Structure formats: structure tokens, C-alpha cells
Amino acid sequence: MIEVLIFATLNGLVTGLLLFMLASGLTLIFSMMGVLNFAHASFYMLGAYFAYSISLYLGFWPALILAPLLVGVLGALIERYGLRHVHKSGHVAELIFTFGLAFLIEEVVQFFWGRATKDYRQPEILDFPLFTLFGQNFPAYKAFMIFISVGIFIGLYFVLTRTRIGIIIQAAITHPHTVGNLGHNVPFIFMMVFGVGTALAGLAGVIAGPVLTTFPGMAVVLGSIVFVIVVIGGLGSLIGALVASLLIGLLQSYAIAADVGMPELLNLLGISFESGHFLDDLWNLSLPQIAPLLPFLLLVLVLIFKPTGLFGKRET
Amino acid sequence: MAILSLRNVSKNFGITQIIRGVSLDIEQGEKHAIIGPNGAGKSTLFHLISGRYELTSGEIFFKDSPIHNKPPYEIARLGLARSFQVTNIFPMMSVFENIRCSLLWAMGYRYSFWHMVNRERRLTEKTEQTLDQIGLHDKRNFPAGELAYAEQRALELGVAIASGAEMILLDEPVAGMSMTEARNAVALIRKITEGKTLIMVEHDMNIVFDLADRISVLVYGEIIATDVPERIRSNARVQEAYLGEVTSDA
Amino acid sequence: MLKSAVVWILFAVLLLLLPQLADSVFAISIYNQMAISIVFALSYNMLLGQGGMLSFGHAVYFGLGGFLAVHALRLIEYETLYFSITFIPLIGGLFGLLAALFIGSFSTRKAGTVFAMISLGVGELIAASSLILVSFFGGEAGISGDRTFGPPLFGADFAQDLEVYYLAAFWTFLCVLFMYLFTKTPAGRLANAVRDNPERAEFIGYSARKVRFISFCAAGFFAGVAGGLFAINYEIITEENLNAATSGRVLLMAYIGGLGFFIGPIIGAIVLTLINSVLSNYTDLWMLYLGLMFVLTVMFLPRGLTGFMMMHRMAWHLGKLRLLLLPYTITAIPGSLLFLSLVAMIEMSHTNNSEFIFLGMGFDPAGWTSWLSLLVVAAIAFMALRLSLPGLKKAWAEANSQETEH
Q1: pTM score, two decimals?
Q2: Are B102 and C204 inside 8 Å of each other by CB?
Q3: Which of chain A's residues have a Cβ under 8 Å away from the Cβ of C350?
Q4: How far is C57 from A20, CA to CA, in rounded Å?
Q5: Mean pLDDT of all residues in chain C?
Q6: Is residue C170 over pLDDT 90?
């Protein structure tokens, strides 16, 4: 029982921190530019694919550095020549643009890399169990993932609160016009923030690719969850994104590990059902089955009862 | 008989108190102007009366019913209409459509999805009438967003008065207009508010003294004087609020 | 009044005569697809174009309507119920309406990003739930039915696609008519007002939330009807018809067609059905082209195809449309060359054959001469295109100016 709890917590932590890497970029972009970047998970996918191709020639470690950079540059270009153009047509148009972008990127990835899953492997140097507890291994690579994620969070926090550019960004988040009037090149800042946000997503892809498999549908899998996180945590709040990411990561991990089903719960209450009833499926639900549903359920509940999310101040 | 009563109305934004205990009675049929320095809270007061903001404390009564903290649409249905300082029309709809929509509730149409608006004779007639009144008959098919500024202000006025509300709140109706345009707008306001109660926020003193029966002066969220124009003009506190200390050789 | 009646009569006549134009099995199946897509896309535009509500989960009402419709087909088949399948789309519509009443009760408070997110969440929730609730939704395989049971209509038992076409055409006509009439009602007009300025709409006496709710339910109803038509046509419905991909597709249709016009989604539905069925026969990469088309439309033609056509209205009124004929041709030639050479390069890089045939010309994918020649053509075409643009701009200004020609 307790080893299930420990491993579920660790796995939840890995997932949660990974989700945070994606959610933090999305939050930054939304805070600054008011755009909910639908294609954010697509940059995550590009990161994985770029890293895969680079690692074929140069190995994992150069890919770890180069792939996120490439993704960031691509993101900045898309902001400069695509999103900015659409900006004047309003928020709805921007959302539709990023939506179309997500669609397009998925097709482009399939065009260049094909539809099959790519054999993107973790580096051999990390391919060992870090520790063994009660007979179960915890891979070193997952610890590496945690390490990188935490490092990113600390770095982000440091840049935003201790450096000059970070302060400017924080100001531009709530008062873009004022910041512009002070002489800062706000469009340039926007482009950089978009680039950094997408680079973070790319980095998440680089380290997640070997574990969560690299295939053209990987953006879709994570995309909606990341939105859920950003909304639940509160649009525009990095702390909220962190809390929500960990919450969702752990929730899913526990739900899958618990493997408790409705029948057990109902038995506890002394109720039993005959099978063959057409609501059978409902009564036979198990926690692992509804695990993928939980984030969306949470999303809808939060949006109904507390649209600003857990920590947010803005309601879009 | 007071058609609108404000009793000790206060509004805070965070810890800042914008409106501090305003009490005011407006008589039916009265033309009342609210003046005051910038930032005094005039627009905020309008927002409180028309339901855009919630009161922090106090009460507002319209025709003896409480309207404080009611949603705007309920207040509008009671017969209170307002215009906005920053033009707030329906930009993608035609001028005709803007006015027609403003008439719907007053002419008895609720959320109907079975009436064809084009076939409703009385509705169309009333829309044409209103368009004539505000002088936008020629531009009836233009998208509202494409009108010139003064025309948009006229439309803004039209949307507010179309429903035939008994009490009309106008927030700086002639802001940004040239002298001629403002003069025409004032004539229009005078014409369409005949027999109705009017509350107006305005900066132009000529217009204020021309139109108003009584004037209230709002300074830092408080009404420091309510009186007929002549007495307001000579009120020392009012002068002080606008000009600072009244110097002896001013 | 007379003029608009004529348009509707023509529309009905067109629908009746369409099979005469082309009656191959392929053509009829395309007509049916178009009918379903038209109703679906128009229902979506009630939300977005007319109501200002961007939904990423509209397929829910389409799918739910379709599922109940297929179950109804099965009930007819197993003789639990006995009524003509003519009413099936109505059943789909009613279920869509029911779902919209429930979901709309909490999701229409705000428009904008919050609404979009709720619609996404609800859509994903329902799509995921559908895989779990196997008895109603049939799991991954979905639910299938047979439309040939029940009382025949005028002797038709709907075994043939052509018979289905006339049924679909009938329902399409009704739906288009009613959705059009809705835009002319107070509820429809207020939907526009709330879209443009929800705050001001409240100040003229209407609750923005209630107005949105009405549009939302109407849109759900018609989406359900489209789902019912789908069920009759394909006799099977799956989770795919509820999911985000289908929601995305209807957004695409409405947007490319043009959100701001009633016929926009109709045009979008027709164009996208054609791309979907015809283009996919010529290339595996049609989805890529679709994606490119979508992004380029958002960037350069934000008002869609209909918007592009309507841009010419002024010139047409002035009788100066022919001034654009030559400049358009001058721009179209390098434009087409650029387009074709790019397509050739994209297609060639994906071919497995040793020879690549494009428009009757043979290319060698392995040799560098083919690539070079295509690149050169593309480059020249691009430059020629850029050179032609100032002339086009000038002609455009002239065609739209009120001055008389001298």
C-alpha cells in the first residue's frame, strides 16, 4: 500500500512538473498578450521531434540545448509574422489562428517525420534505476526530469523577480500601454515572451519525448490538459499554474494507482446491483477509467463557480 | 414627487472611496445637471444609478422602487435609460438596427423567436420616427461603426431615448463635438426630453446653465451643493472647488 | 418580400434538380455530405457569427443527436416503435436541444474566452465519457443501425442513397429556412446586439445571458438535426462524431465560408466537403493543404470566402467590376504558377515512385534538375507576383472610387 503511494506521488510529481513547464509558458503568453495559445502543445511536440532528429546526429545532450532554442526561434517568428498580423482582428480571431496553427503544425510534423512513433530514446547515461523501493524501480531519467523542471521554475522565478527585464515583463503583464509609454519596445518584448514561452514548451517536449512517446498525436493528448491547468490555476498566475499542475498530476496518478471502482464503493455502502441494467457502465466505473475525465470535470466546475480560477485575478 | 432618490450612496474601489454618502432627490420632469471637477465621480454615480456598478452602501429608489444592485436590464425596463461618455453602440449593426433593437422591449417584444421584425409595422414606424428625430434617416443602412463621430454621438443618444424612458441619464453628451455640432445636439436633447426627467453630466457651463433647472456639484465623491443655476454660480464653495482659493482680486 | 420568396423557390428547385446534374453514386454521397455539413455549419454560426460565442465543443450536440437517432433507428428495426424515418432528424434535434438546455444553463453566462474554455471542457468530458458508457455509446465501435425499416415514404424504403438525398434535401431546406428566419426575429437581432456590445444590450432592457442561452439552444437543436441526418445517411455513429476534431471541422467550415454572412457557412460547408472528398482522391496530403488554407484564411481573408466576394460589392454597384478583370488575371498567372510549383515540390517530396507525374509532366524525384527547375519557377513566379501587386492595388482603388471615368 505504502509503496503504491510513494511511487504514485513520485510519478504524479514528474507529470505535474512537466505539465507546469508547459503551463508556465502558456500563462506567460496569456498574461502578456491576452492570447490563449491553442498551439502551445504543438511547440511541445516540435521540441520532441527536433530533439529526436538532432539526437540522431549529435546525441541527446546537444539536442537538449539546441531543440528548445530552435522551437523558441520558430515561436518568435510565428508571433512576429503571424499572430501580430491577426491581433488587430480581435481575440476571437487570435484564438482561431492559434487553433489553425495547432492543426497545421500537426500536419507539418506528419509531413516531415511521418505518422509512426519515433524511437526517441533517453540517453544511456541516465538509463538506470535511481533507487529500488519495495521491489519497484524508480528510473534515474525521471529524477532528471524533476531536476530540470524544478531548475526551470527557480530560474523563471529568479528572472521575473530579480532581473530588470523580469520586472519590465511583470509590469507589461498588467499595464502594457504604460510600459510602452515608458519607452520600452513592447512588441519586441511580446515576441521574446512568446519565443521563451514556446521554448519552454519545446524543452518539455525534449525531456518528455522518451517517456511519453514521440508521435504526431502527442500535442492533442497534453494540449487540453494544459488549458485546464491554466484555467484552474487562474489565468495569469504562475503560482496558480504550479499548484494546478501538481494537483492534476498527482490526482491523475493517484486515480490510476488506486484502481478502486464504483462497485467497491457501493459495496461499502451496502448496495449491490444486478448486471444487465442499462446504467451498468455507470455502476461499474472504476477510478482509473475516469482518471482522464477528472481534469475536464474540474475545469467545468471551476469555470462555473470560480471563473478566475484558484489564484487568478483576471477573468479574461 | 421625487422620481429618483439617492440615500447615502457610497462606492468603494478597494480601499479608495469614490462616492461618499451622496444623497439626492430628483423631481419628476426636472432637468438636472451634475457638474464637478475631473475625477469627482460623476460617471461612477451614473454607473451606480443605472446598475453597472454595485453600491458599497446606501440605497437608490426609482419611482419608489429600490433599484440599487439590480442588474441593468431590470432597471432599464422600469423606464430609466442612459447614454455613455465613450460611445457604446452596436458597431456591426446598421443604424436602423441599432434603434430598432433599442425599441424592442418597450414595444412589447420579449425574447421572441416567432415574430418577424421586418413585418412589424408599428416597430418599423417607430424606428423611422426616432431616426428622423436624431437626424440619421439618411444613414439608416450604414454600419454604426462607420459613422462620423458626431453622428455616432447622435446614435448614442437615439439608442438611449428610443424606448421612451421616463428618465434619461446623459453622460457628457456633447463631448468632443464642435460648437455647431454641440448646438444641434443640445437642441435635439431639449426636444426629445420634453416632459421627461433628465440628469446630465456635463462640463460645458453654457450648456449646463442653458438646459438645467437645478445643478448638483460633485467634488471628491460628495455633493457640496444642489441648487438653481444662479445660486450655484455665486456659491463660494463651488467657486473654490473649481478655482481653488477665491482670491480677493480675482 | 417577393424577391426573397423567389430566392427560396429557386433554392428548393435547385435542391430538387441537383441529382439531374450528376447522379453517380459518388455525386449523391457528396450531396448528402454537403447537406449534413450545411445544416451543421449554419447551426454553428448561430453561435459564433451571429452570437459572438466561440465554441470548441459544438460537435457534442451533433453527436448526441446522431446517437439518439441511431438508437431510434434500432427501435424501429426491432419493432419497439413504428414511425417513418422521416422524423428521425427531428428526434436528433430534440436531443440536441435537451443537451443544449442543460449545458447552456451554466455556460452562457459569459462569452469570450471563458465560454470557449467551458465548451472545450464539456466537449472533452462528453467525448471521453462516451467511451466509458458503452451501452448508449457503443464504445470505440459506436452504434450502427438500419434505415430501411419502418413505414415507407411514397413507396421509398430508403435503401438507396438517392432516396436519402431527397429526405436530406427536404430537411436541409427546412433548416436553412428556419435558421434564416431566426435571424429576422427579435431573438436573432438581439443575438447580434449582444455579440456587438453585451453591456449596451443590457441597458436597453435585455439580459445578455438569456439572449445567448436562446441562441445556444437553437444552435444545439439544429446541430442535433444534422446529427440525425448523419445517422440516416451513414447508419453508424461513433465517438468521433462528438469529439474535438469534429468540433474543429465545423469551426473551419464556418470560418472559411465567412462568419459575418448567413450564406458564409453554406459556402464553407460546400467547399470543405469538396476538398474532403475530391482532393483526398488526388493526394494524401490534403489535410496539410487544408491546414495551410485555414491559417492563410485567418491571416489574409478574415472575413472568409464570402467576405472576399462581398468586397467586390461596391465595384459591382458602380459597374466597374470589369476594371478588375485584367489586373486579377495578371496577378493570377504568377500566383497560380507559384502555387502549383510549391504543390509539386510538396507532393514530390512525398512520393515513393521513381517518377513523379504532375499535371502531365514527368519529374525525377531523385534528380536535382527537377528540384532546381521547380524552385526556379517558384522564385520567378513569386517575384512576378510581387511586381503585379501595385497595379492590382491601383485598379482596386479605381474600381471602388465614386468618380466617373473620363
Answers
A1: 0.89
A2: yes
A3: 111
A4: 25
A5: 89
A6: yes
